[in-house]
Amino acid sequence: MEHFKIAEFEREHGQGTFPRFRSLSPPETTALATSLLQVLALPVDAGPLELLSVIRSRSLPIDAVNADDENFCLGDLLRKLNYPESELVYLNWYQYDEIDECRTEDVVRLFHDIWYPSADDLELIDSQLKWILSIEHHGMVRGLRLP
What we know:
The protein has helices at 3-13, 26-39, 48-58, 74-80, 104-109, 111-114; strands at residues 21-23, 60-66, 88-92, 99-103, 122-126, 131-135, 140-145. The chain has one domain. It is globular and about 45 Å long. It is α+β, with helices and mostly antiparallel strands. It is 36% helix and 24% strand. Strands 1-4-3-5-6-7-2 form a 7-stranded antiparallel β-sheet.
């Protein structure tokens, strides 16, 4: 998680109020990417750009949903999509080299404090590898159920 987001949140809500999260270590990020490659039946030597490309090509745009809308509610969207609930979700910030693990309820509650429009392309990956929700910097949302 970028430090300025934490600082901005705590400036508004008080020191130490940002929810707990864990940044995955490099071996853990590699293991997650490898698991996704296996789930998607891709060669294990495929790189992060290929993984991102395949996820994007297999994901479906979610019509009439824009994460940048002031009324956007991540929790409502997950329920509407009928995605299985998990306690934890992974946040992929780039090319499977910066990944945070957070409680799903914290990401839902604080989505607009975590995702910054115009700056962040973000993938929310279910910790059970059942779904991926991609949120592009301009607000477009794509969903992918994993086999």
